[in-house]
Automatic annotation (TrEMBL):
Pfam family, one: NAD_binding_10
Organism: Streptosporangium jomthongense
Sequence ranges assigned to domain NAD(P)-binding in this UniProt record: 7-179
Protein name: NAD(P)H-binding protein
Coiled-coil parts of chain: none
InterPro entries noted in UniProt: Ergot_Alk_Oxidoreductase, NAD(P)-bd_dom, NAD(P)-bd_dom_sf
């Protein structure tokens, strides 16, 4: 039987596919456009947009379990086909934005809640993952500026987050896709500690081998520097959430250790493995 990993080009999906292939599992990795898809040895490609059921039957043939990315748009038709194809378990990557005050009724929360609802309505058995602040946010939000200037502008740098290593998220997903234990629950995944954003930057500086200066931005400055790929309402929500996390320790859970058997990885470990992106 095959495990389908949707979003095989994604940070978490790609890592998950590699872990499963290394573990000797039969895996299929999908992307909306497979031309740029690089798969580990033995993995099969599939072209699939989960909001367009046309590629679904082929992508789901012989699939026993599936990793699902939360995507904008209607996923109900695809999930109904998955139920008809007798997929036995789905692991959904969701976000605490689906339930946190100040987020659940805003754009990011609504996207995640819509996919969760579609999954519930499909009748498919599933487990939902809620990772905290992904360590890869540091690359997405700061790497370009740090490489160019050695500094980084951040609004509310004393806000606290709990960076979770994507290898831990992928490892938890791999366990849930291949073993019965821990399935069927909502799993809140965090790293081992709450850190202020300026501490996360300091950890990056140590890894890069040169301190990275934090420039504290006002909200208006942060909005003025918005990456055009980030819609303004989404950035506004993120800035509000960040403001509310100043002086508030981000929760720590034992989910990673409980499911994988090892403690959650430190942010510094992710930074060290990805230091080239910040130089
Ligand atoms: N940032 C955070 O702190 C945080 C916290 C909690 C949860 N999350 C969740 O984690 C996600 C980021 O994870 P990541 O870094 O691994 O993602 P990523 O690298 O941005 O990859 C996203 C994947 O989603 C796939 N995808 C998007 N739309 C699709 C569609 N319609 N049909 C099929 N596949 C589709 C993409 O596939 P293609 O190759 O087809 O483009 C891509 O592989 C966020 O979007 C959020 O939902 C984030």
């Amino acid at each position: 039987m095959t495990i389908l990993v949707t979003g095989a080009r994604g940070n978490i999906g790609g890592r998950l596919l590699t872990l499963l292939a290394e573990g000797g599992h039969r895996v299929r990795g999908s992307a909306r456009n497979t031309s740029a898809l690089r798969l580990p040895e033995g993995a099969e490609p599939a072209e699939l947009d989960v909001t367009d059921p046309r590629g679904a039957e082929q992508a789901l043939r012989g699939v026993e379990t599936m990793f699902l990315y939360p995507t904008r748009g209607e996923t109900g038709a695809f999930l109904r086909i998955a139920a008809e194809a007798r997929v036995r378990h789905v692991v959904l990557l969701s976000s605490p934005a689906a339930y946190e005050a100040g987020e659940y009724d805003r754009p990011i929360g609504l996207v995640h809640r819509a996919v969760e609802r579609a999954l519930e309505e499909s009748g498919l058995r599933h487990t939902v993952l809620y990772p905290s602040w992904l360590a890869t946010n540091a690359r997405r939000d700061w790497a370009g500026e740090i490489r160019a200037t050695g500094r980084v502008g951040i609004a509310h740098p004393d806000a606290q987050v709990n960076p979770v290593h994507i290898d831990d998220v992928a490892e938890v997903a791999a366990r849930l896709l291949t073993e019965e234990a821990h399935r069927g629950r909502r799993q809140v995944l965090t790293g081992p500690r709450s850190m202020r954003l300026r501490e996360v930057v300091a950890a990056l500086g140590e890894t890069v081998g040169a301190p990275v200066e934090v420039e504290e931005l006002t909200v208006e400055q942060a909005l003025g520097r918005r990456d055009p790929r980030m819609p303004e309402p989404v950035l506004r929500t993120l800035l509000e959430v960040t403001a509310s996390a100043v002086g508030v320790p981000a929760p720590v859970t034992n989910t990673v250790e409980r499911i994988t058997g090892h403690p959650a990885r430190e942010f510094a470990e992710w930074a060290s493995a990805n230091r080239a992106d910040f130089r």
